[in-house]
Amino acid sequence: MKKANQQVLHALLSSKELASVLENTKDTIQEDAIFNYLLKNDVLFKVDCEHAHLDSDAISFIIRRMSTLGEEFALNEKKLDKKVSKAIKKEKIEKSEALAYLINQIRKKLPKNYTIYNLERGDEAYYIGVIKKKDLKKLSKLDLDFGIFHKFKSDADHEPFYVIECSCGATYIWETQEDDTDPTKGVCHSCGKSFADDNNTVSPN
Protein backbone atom coordinates (compact mmCIF):
# COMPACT_ATOMS: atom_id res chain seq x y z
CA MET A 1 0.00 0.00 0.00
CA LYS A 2 1.26 3.49 -0.82
CA LYS A 3 2.56 5.49 2.12
CA ALA A 4 0.01 8.26 1.38
CA ASN A 5 -2.86 5.77 1.60
CA GLN A 6 -1.51 4.45 4.88
CA GLN A 7 -1.46 8.01 6.23
CA VAL A 8 -5.11 8.47 5.23
CA LEU A 9 -6.20 5.28 7.00
CA HIS A 10 -4.16 6.04 10.13
CA ALA A 11 -5.65 9.56 10.31
CA LEU A 12 -9.31 8.64 9.74
CA LEU A 13 -9.78 5.23 11.35
CA SER A 14 -9.94 4.10 14.94
CA SER A 15 -7.25 1.64 16.01
CA LYS A 16 -9.82 -1.18 15.84
CA GLU A 17 -10.94 -0.22 12.31
CA LEU A 18 -7.34 0.10 11.16
CA ALA A 19 -6.36 -3.31 12.51
CA SER A 20 -9.40 -4.85 10.81
CA VAL A 21 -8.82 -3.35 7.37
CA LEU A 22 -5.10 -4.19 7.36
CA GLU A 23 -5.85 -7.76 8.41
CA ASN A 24 -8.63 -8.25 5.87
CA THR A 25 -6.71 -6.75 2.96
CA LYS A 26 -3.27 -8.00 4.02
CA ASP A 27 -2.08 -4.40 3.63
CA THR A 28 -2.72 -4.52 -0.13
CA ILE A 29 -5.85 -2.37 -0.47
CA GLN A 30 -5.78 -0.74 -3.90
CA GLU A 31 -5.62 3.02 -4.52
CA ASP A 32 -9.04 3.10 -6.21
CA ALA A 33 -10.57 1.06 -3.38
CA ILE A 34 -9.66 3.47 -0.56
CA PHE A 35 -12.48 5.92 -1.28
CA ASN A 36 -15.11 3.20 -1.65
CA TYR A 37 -13.94 1.62 1.60
CA LEU A 38 -14.25 4.93 3.50
CA LEU A 39 -17.72 5.62 2.10
CA LYS A 40 -19.05 2.07 2.51
CA ASN A 41 -17.78 1.79 6.10
CA ASP A 42 -19.32 5.05 7.32
CA VAL A 43 -16.03 6.93 7.62
CA LEU A 44 -17.23 9.46 5.04
CA PHE A 45 -20.73 10.91 4.72
CA LYS A 46 -21.93 12.05 1.29
CA VAL A 47 -24.08 15.16 0.87
CA ASP A 48 -25.34 16.23 -2.57
CA CYS A 49 -24.20 19.82 -3.26
CA GLU A 50 -27.43 20.62 -5.09
CA HIS A 51 -29.50 19.51 -2.11
CA ALA A 52 -27.19 20.57 0.72
CA HIS A 53 -30.01 21.45 3.09
CA LEU A 54 -30.34 20.27 6.66
CA ASP A 55 -30.00 16.52 6.93
CA SER A 56 -30.35 15.03 10.41
CA ASP A 57 -28.44 12.00 9.10
CA ALA A 58 -25.33 14.21 8.93
CA ILE A 59 -25.70 15.02 12.65
CA SER A 60 -26.14 11.35 13.52
CA PHE A 61 -23.13 10.42 11.39
CA ILE A 62 -20.80 12.82 13.22
CA ILE A 63 -22.02 11.61 16.62
CA ARG A 64 -21.44 7.97 15.58
CA ARG A 65 -18.05 8.76 14.14
CA MET A 66 -16.82 10.49 17.30
CA SER A 67 -18.01 7.53 19.33
CA THR A 68 -16.14 5.12 17.03
CA LEU A 69 -12.99 7.18 17.49
CA GLY A 70 -13.39 6.78 21.25
CA GLU A 71 -14.25 10.41 21.95
CA GLU A 72 -16.99 11.59 24.29
CA PHE A 73 -19.27 13.86 22.30
CA ALA A 74 -22.75 14.86 23.42
CA LEU A 75 -25.07 16.67 21.05
CA ASN A 76 -28.82 17.24 21.20
CA GLU A 77 -29.83 16.31 17.64
CA LYS A 78 -33.41 17.55 17.91
CA LYS A 79 -32.32 20.88 19.41
CA LEU A 80 -29.74 21.44 16.67
CA ASP A 81 -32.18 20.37 13.98
CA LYS A 82 -34.71 22.87 15.32
CA LYS A 83 -32.09 25.65 15.52
CA VAL A 84 -31.13 25.29 11.85
CA SER A 85 -34.76 25.04 10.72
CA LYS A 86 -35.57 28.18 12.71
CA ALA A 87 -32.66 30.06 11.14
CA ILE A 88 -34.01 29.19 7.68
CA LYS A 89 -37.58 30.11 8.61
CA LYS A 90 -36.50 33.51 9.94
CA GLU A 91 -34.42 34.00 6.78
CA LYS A 92 -31.18 34.32 8.73
CA ILE A 93 -29.73 31.84 6.26
CA GLU A 94 -30.75 30.43 2.88
CA LYS A 95 -31.60 26.75 2.49
CA SER A 96 -28.42 26.38 0.46
CA GLU A 97 -26.42 27.63 3.48
CA ALA A 98 -27.98 25.20 5.94
CA LEU A 99 -25.26 22.57 5.70
CA ALA A 100 -22.46 25.08 6.31
CA TYR A 101 -24.45 26.54 9.22
CA LEU A 102 -25.03 23.07 10.63
CA ILE A 103 -21.35 22.10 10.32
CA ASN A 104 -20.23 25.29 12.04
CA GLN A 105 -22.64 24.69 14.93
CA ILE A 106 -21.34 21.12 15.37
CA ARG A 107 -17.70 22.16 15.05
CA LYS A 108 -18.10 24.57 17.98
CA LYS A 109 -19.05 21.62 20.18
CA LEU A 110 -16.30 19.24 19.07
CA PRO A 111 -13.21 18.68 21.26
CA LYS A 112 -10.71 21.45 20.51
CA ASN A 113 -8.31 19.12 18.72
CA TYR A 114 -10.95 17.94 16.23
CA THR A 115 -12.53 19.52 13.17
CA ILE A 116 -14.77 18.56 10.25
CA TYR A 117 -13.19 17.93 6.87
CA ASN A 118 -14.42 17.67 3.31
CA LEU A 119 -12.88 15.32 0.77
CA GLU A 120 -13.10 17.27 -2.48
CA ARG A 121 -13.40 15.00 -5.53
CA GLY A 122 -14.53 17.43 -8.21
CA ASP A 123 -18.09 16.08 -8.37
CA GLU A 124 -21.40 17.49 -7.15
CA ALA A 125 -21.09 16.28 -3.57
CA TYR A 126 -19.48 16.94 -0.20
CA TYR A 127 -17.79 14.00 1.52
CA ILE A 128 -17.49 14.99 5.17
CA GLY A 129 -16.03 13.42 8.27
CA VAL A 130 -14.27 14.21 11.56
CA ILE A 131 -10.53 14.28 12.08
CA LYS A 132 -7.88 15.62 14.42
CA LYS A 133 -6.65 19.03 13.25
CA LYS A 134 -3.00 17.98 13.18
CA ASP A 135 -3.87 14.98 10.98
CA LEU A 136 -5.92 17.08 8.56
CA LYS A 137 -2.97 19.39 8.13
CA LYS A 138 -0.87 16.41 7.02
CA LEU A 139 -3.53 14.91 4.74
CA SER A 140 -4.17 18.24 2.99
CA LYS A 141 -0.60 18.11 1.66
CA LEU A 142 -0.87 14.62 0.16
CA ASP A 143 -1.12 13.98 -3.57
CA LEU A 144 -4.01 11.49 -3.72
CA ASP A 145 -5.80 10.00 -6.72
CA PHE A 146 -9.21 10.04 -5.05
CA GLY A 147 -9.47 13.65 -3.81
CA ILE A 148 -8.14 16.48 -1.68
CA PHE A 149 -8.72 16.73 2.07
CA HIS A 150 -9.39 20.14 3.57
CA LYS A 151 -11.34 21.74 6.39
CA PHE A 152 -15.03 22.07 5.58
CA LYS A 153 -15.90 25.73 5.21
CA SER A 154 -18.25 28.03 3.38
CA ASP A 155 -17.23 31.17 1.51
CA ALA A 156 -18.47 33.19 4.49
CA ASP A 157 -15.95 31.71 6.90
CA HIS A 158 -13.05 31.50 4.46
CA GLU A 159 -9.83 32.00 6.36
CA PRO A 160 -7.32 34.69 5.39
CA PHE A 161 -4.19 33.77 3.51
CA TYR A 162 -0.73 35.22 2.92
CA VAL A 163 1.18 35.69 -0.31
CA ILE A 164 4.85 34.96 0.34
CA GLU A 165 7.41 36.15 -2.21
CA CYS A 166 10.82 34.62 -1.58
CA SER A 167 13.94 36.53 -2.58
CA CYS A 168 14.83 33.62 -4.91
CA GLY A 169 11.75 34.40 -7.00
CA ALA A 170 9.40 31.68 -5.76
CA THR A 171 5.87 32.64 -4.68
CA TYR A 172 3.67 30.77 -2.19
CA ILE A 173 0.08 31.01 -0.99
CA TRP A 174 -0.06 30.26 2.76
CA GLU A 175 -3.56 29.65 4.17
CA THR A 176 -3.88 30.24 7.89
CA GLN A 177 -5.03 27.17 9.77
CA GLU A 178 -7.13 26.80 12.91
CA ASP A 179 -3.98 26.65 14.99
CA ASP A 180 -2.97 30.09 13.66
CA THR A 181 0.33 28.84 12.27
CA ASP A 182 2.72 31.74 11.66
CA PRO A 183 3.52 31.90 7.90
CA THR A 184 7.06 33.08 8.71
CA LYS A 185 7.77 29.67 10.24
CA GLY A 186 7.79 28.07 6.78
CA VAL A 187 10.73 27.36 4.50
CA CYS A 188 11.05 27.92 0.74
CA HIS A 189 11.05 24.60 -1.12
CA SER A 190 13.16 26.09 -3.91
CA CYS A 191 16.11 27.62 -2.05
CA GLY A 192 15.65 26.47 1.55
CA LYS A 193 15.48 29.98 3.03
CA SER A 194 13.18 30.65 5.97
CA PHE A 195 10.12 32.78 5.16
CA ALA A 196 11.22 34.93 8.10
CA ASP A 197 14.21 36.14 6.04
CA ASP A 198 14.26 39.96 5.85
CA ASN A 199 14.57 39.82 2.05
CA ASN A 200 11.24 37.99 1.69
CA THR A 201 7.82 39.65 1.40
CA VAL A 202 4.87 38.27 3.44
CA SER A 203 1.61 40.02 2.57
CA PRO A 204 -1.77 39.26 4.27
CA ASN A 205 -4.89 39.05 2.05
Overview of this protein structure:
The chain is an alpha+beta fold. The protein has 7 helices and 7 strands, in the order αααβαααββαββββ. It has helices at residues 3-12, 15-25, 31-40, 56-68, 77-89, 98-109, 133-139, and strands at 45-48, 114-120, 125-132, 148-151, 161-165, 171-175, 201-204. Strand 2 (114-120) and strand 3 form a beta hairpin. Helix 1 packs antiparallel against helix 7 (133-139). The radius of gyration is 19 Å and the shape is globular. It starts with a helix and ends with a strand. 19% of the residues are buried.
Keywords:
about 200 residues, alpha+beta, four-stranded antiparallel beta sheet, three-stranded antiparallel beta sheet, globular
Give a quick rundown of the structure:
This protein is an alpha+beta fold and 205 residues long.
Count the strands? 7
Q: Tell me what portion of residues adopts beta-strand conformation.
A: 15-25%
Category by helix and strand content: alpha+beta
Query: Averaged pLDDT, please?
Result: 80
Ranges where pLDDT stays below 50 over 5 or more residues in a row are: 155-160
Write down the secondary-structure element order.
Answer: HHHEHHHEEHEEEE
What is Rg?
19 Å
How would you write the strand order of the largest sheet? 1-3-2-4
Helix fraction bin: 25-40%
Distance between the termini: 39 Å
Number of helices: 7
Shape: globular
Q: Sheet with the most strands? A: 4 strands, antiparallel
Topology:
Blueprint: H1 3-12, H2 15-25, H3 31-40, E1 45-48, H4 56-68, H5 77-89, H6 98-109, E2 114-120, E3 125-132, H7 133-139, E4 148-151, E5 161-165, E6 171-175, E7 201-204
Antiparallel strand pairs: 1-3, 2-3, 2-4, 5-6, 5-7
Helix pairs in contact: 1-7, 5-6
